[in-house]
């Protein structure tokens, strides 16, 4: 790094290293370092007597156990995280003076936590929900937190309504049901009576709310921020994370089944990808808007329920983030990490978005209760890589040992240090925006349009995506017991699109809306997942193999799939080795009991001669389920005959053939396509 400074990544790793402890091969001690001679029995007055209060080891061990759990987050409780690095592609000096956005040679360490919003820590991960996407940059100027979601807008416009939203979406208090789900009365009653949520609900009912992988979803800063350059000139900015693998989702039936088959599905996917070296990569994009253009749109750019259409304000890709290291300890890192949208560096500032303004208060407040006091910044995962000096002292969990007698400003005993830094010395100076007006509890009239961008979203969807939205409304509202709430929601969404509202109104047994409709015809190609990148990389393919398979051809196909970045896994009737007709053997990774089609992206049926009826039945169920979820199905040799029996041959996304090279090319393309929606009309 320039000027002989250590690379930030190395500094963060070195800093964390001093806190890592490997207990293997060590003698047991108390937390004070005293070696322990016995850990099976408490100290008693005689073998059958009462336990003695003087047993300090028992008391320390039990007290620590009793306090091992900290309060889980009220929202975003279910989360998983990874370490990585960020590098900017080119200097952003024209727009911001933030140092980590200047030099492409500098790699800034990051820590990213993904999460669901509504469920508890023990809830499943493939529920229909918003996903949190929070990134902590450990920069030389201090920590910068970009705390966002996988959806670019939000339910509400003002932070004062956030407790109401979360009270509504959480399990209902009279029976504590349902867990991690929005399909219940109080949530939809909130929606019907708080119509600013319309745009967010369209995203929430779309495929975006059930991502295939944390590696395959976008991230958004949600709010409007400011970039400020070293000349004091500001631009409004919105942040985007773009996954290089594209944006892909589960289908609803698949998501529900995965919740039972593997409730840790998404964290397992992230963990295993990093362990294999298939590092998730996200590119950072920004939408930049000159201050003089603030009012040129038909929506308010500060409204958090609105996005900036990419066709109107293009996304400029400025860097990339690579997640390349799993956590050492989930509690110490993932659970104790403290994010805050107010953790900024010089060159990044706020706007008057009323939801953002409220978050600037709320995040500090919640860390105080979760992490036991004001010193949460001293936990290893939260410590900046640069030194920090101030007159803050003491409190729960204090780790810093401050020397000297002075802890106040101004002072003469320590030459008035620590002293504020000037802007030229890197001191943070708030952007000098002119603000004037009367104190008032109100909302700008420019925030009152709740439906036009919801219609924009609907107009932008492909036909399969529209059908999924209709089905999502039908499922969610079908769980609502109040007929009045159902009717209110149907009438509300008639303002978005009459076809949509009429379709789900019929499904949930309420009257079709008598009025409504929208004159908005605009669409945005960037909003449809049909237009995303489609790559085979890291896709998992279940390979169904029986004894006496064609060994030469199968080994060739597996090698070709791996060369394309696809991960084939052998499934058979029993664990161990399955034998080919040429005497070759393949190690079986899963049986039909330990694997399921919903845990794979595609299926390749090889078969073998003389398999049992049970094997064939299990294989048929496996293939039929994958087929019903629109996944790619491939078959060669005996597997082709099976597909004929299953009546699956010659359907969209089903690839067969004896020409192995041609088969591989076509099958890889089918896997990359992710889904084959044409099957809906077969």
Automatic annotation (TrEMBL):
Record field: transmembrane:
none
Q: Which Pfam families match?
A: Catalase (PF00199), Catalase-rel (PF06628), Catalase_C (PF18011)
| InterPro entries hit by this protein | Catalase, Catalase_AS, Catalase_clade2, Catalase_clade2_helical, Catalase_core, Catalase_haem_BS, Catalase_immune_responsive, Catalase_large_C
Work out whether the entry's keyword set contains Iron: yes
Broadest EC class assigned to this enzyme? oxidoreductase
Q: Which reaction does it catalyse?
A: 2 H2O2 = O2 + 2 H2O
Please list the residue ranges that the record marks as compositionally biased, kind Basic and acidic residues.
1-25
> What cofactors does this protein use?
heme
Keyword annotations from UniProtKB, A to Z = Heme, Hydrogen peroxide, Iron, Metal-binding, Oxidoreductase, Peroxidase
Q: What EC number(s) would the UniProt record show?
A: 1.11.1.6
The segments labelled Disordered in the record are 1-30, 513-534
Q: Where is the Catalase core domain?
A: 29-417
Pinpoint the 3'-histidyl-3-tyrosine (His-Tyr) cross-link: 340-363
Bias (Polar residues) ranges: 519-530
Which PROSITE patterns does UniProt cross-reference here? CATALASE_1 (PS00437), CATALASE_2 (PS00438), CATALASE_3 (PS51402)
Q: SMART domains, from UniProt? A: Catalase
- Active-site residue list: 76, 149
Q: Which GO terms describe its biological process?
A: hydrogen peroxide catabolic process; response to oxidative stress
Instruction: Indicate whether Metal-binding appears among the record's keywords.
Output: yes
Q: Which GO terms describe its cellular component?
A: cytosol
Q: Which PANTHER family match?
A: CATALASE (PTHR42821), CATALASE-B (PTHR42821:SF1)
Summarizing the function annotation, the protein's role is: Decomposes hydrogen peroxide into water and oxygen; serves to protect cells from the toxic effects of hydrogen peroxide.
What family is this? Belongs to the catalase family. HPII subfamily.
Write down what this protein is called. Catalase
Q: Organism, per UniProt? A: Bacillus canaveralius
Q: What is the lineage of its organism?
A: Bacteria, Bacillati, Bacillota, Bacilli, Bacillales
């Amino acid at each position: 790094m320039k000027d002989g400074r250590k690379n930030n990544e190395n500094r963060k790793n070195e800093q964390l290293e001093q806190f890592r402890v490997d207990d293997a091969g060590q003698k047991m001690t108390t937390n004070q370092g005293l070696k322990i001679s016995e850990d099976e029995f408490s100290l008693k007055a005689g073998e059958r007597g009462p336990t003695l209060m003087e047993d300090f080891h028992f008391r320390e061990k039990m007290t620590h156990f009793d306090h091992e759990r900290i309060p889980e987050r009220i929202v975003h409780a279910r989360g998983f995280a990874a370490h990585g690095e960020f590098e900017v592609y080119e200097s952003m000096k024209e727009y911001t003076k933030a140092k980590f956005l200047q030099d492409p040679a500098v790699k800034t360490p990051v820590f990213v936590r993904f999460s669901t919003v509504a469920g508890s820590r023990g809830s499943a991960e493939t529920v229909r929900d918003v996903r949190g996407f929070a990134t902590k940059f450990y920069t030389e100027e201090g920590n910068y937190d970009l705390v966002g979601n996988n959806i670019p807008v939000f339910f509400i416009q003002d932070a004062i309504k956030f407790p109401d939203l979360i009270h509504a979406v959480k399990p209902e208090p009279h029976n504590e049901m349902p867990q991690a789900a929005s399909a219940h009365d109080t949530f939809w009653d909130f929606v019907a009576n708080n119509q600013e949520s319309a745009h967010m609900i369209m995203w929430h009912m779309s495929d975006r709310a059930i991502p295939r992988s944390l590696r395959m979803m976008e991230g958004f800063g949600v709010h409007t921020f400011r970039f400020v350059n070293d000349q004091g000139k500001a631009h409004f900015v919105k942040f985007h994370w773009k996954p290089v693998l594209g944006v892909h989702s589960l289908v609803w039936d698949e998501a529900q089944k995965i919740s039972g088959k593997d409730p840790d599905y998404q964290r397992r996917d992230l963990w295993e990808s990093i362990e294999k070296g298939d590092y998730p990569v996200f590119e950072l994009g920004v939408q930049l808007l000159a201050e003089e253009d603030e009012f040129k749109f038909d929506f308010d750019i500060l409204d958090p329920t609105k996005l900036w259409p990419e066709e109107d304000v293009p996304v400029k890709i400025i860097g990339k983030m690579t997640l390349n290291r799993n956590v050492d300890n989930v509690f110490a890192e993932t659970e104790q990490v403290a994010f805050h949208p107010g953790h900024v560096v010089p060159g990044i500032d706020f706007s008057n978005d009323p939801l953002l303004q409220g978050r600037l208060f709320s995040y500090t407040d919640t860390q105080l209760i979760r992490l036991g006091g004001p010193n949460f910044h001293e936990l290893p995962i939260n410590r900046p890589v640069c030194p920090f000096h101030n007159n803050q002292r003491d409190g729960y969990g204090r780790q810093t040992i401050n020397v000297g007698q002075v802890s106040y400003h101004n002072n003469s005993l320590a030459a008035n240090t620590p002293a504020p830094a000037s802007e030229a010395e890197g001191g943070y100076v708030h952007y000098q925006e002119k603000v004037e007006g009367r104190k008032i509890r109100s909302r700008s009239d420019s925030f009152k349009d709740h439906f036009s961008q919801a219609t924009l979203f609907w107009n932008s969807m492909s036909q399969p995506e529209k059908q999924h939205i209709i089905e999502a409304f039908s499922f969610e509202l079908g769980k609502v017991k109040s007929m009045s709430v159902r009717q209110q929601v149907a009438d509300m969404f008639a303002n978005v699109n009459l076809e949509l509202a009429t379709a789900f109104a019929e499904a949930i047994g309420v009257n079709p809306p008598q009025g409504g409709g929208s004159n908005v015809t605009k669409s945005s190609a960037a909003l449809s997942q049909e237009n995303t990148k489609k790559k085979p990389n890291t896709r998992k393919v279940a390979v169904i193999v029986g004894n006496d398979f064609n060994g030469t051809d199968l080994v060739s196909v597996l090698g070709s799939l791996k060369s394309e970045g696809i991960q084939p896994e052998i499934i058979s009737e029993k664990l161990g080795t399955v034998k080919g007709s040429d005497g070759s053997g393949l190690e079986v990774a899963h049986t039909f009991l330990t694997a399921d089609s919903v845990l794979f992206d595609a299926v390749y049926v090889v078969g073998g001669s003389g398999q049992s009826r049970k094997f064939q039945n299990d294989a048929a169920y496996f293939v039929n389920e994958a087929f019903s979820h629109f996944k790619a199905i491939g078959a060669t040799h005996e597997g082709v005959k099976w597909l004929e029996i299953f009546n699956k041959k010659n359907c969209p996304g089903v690839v067969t053939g004896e020409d192995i090279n041609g088969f591989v090319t076509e099958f890889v393309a089918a896997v990359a396509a992710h889904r084959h929606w044409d099957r809906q009309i077969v």
